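**Folding the chain**
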Amino acid sequence: MHPTTVRVWLATPPLDEAGRLHRFPYADPCPGHEGLRGQDHGAWAGRALDEVAGEDPEGLRRWMTDTAYAPPGGGESVDALIARVGAHLGALEPGTHRAVVSGQGVVRAAVVWALELPPAVFWRLDVRPGTVTVLTGRSGRWNLGVGHSLMGQEGTPEGAGEAPPS
């Protein structure tokens, strides 16, 4: 790895009960990486997707189609999430950083930011629970490593000391 390279391993935990029940997650912290905390879903946090869809179908539709829309109750828009995650990634010191993030949203935001994709792509990315997404950057250019398994010990991705395949 080049001495100015930043490598970020974003691990997603296995699906928990709330995820299986399709509940909006809380803005869970990411120890050591405050900028990678989970998305704030405001008044929707902890509630089932079907419940929110029944009570606020227009709000849910807007949230899933307008990346500038924030959920009610102080929620965070997708645009704001992408900006926050990107600011965190852009400020990381060279070296390898490992973070266990609270779900798909942070990984989606990181990929959208790193690859300079349009924000609407956020909704087209599926992130499997229990996997690792690797981003490697230097001089403002980032690459995405796909297909890494979360099989290591103590939350460390398998092969964490190795360069991802090119």
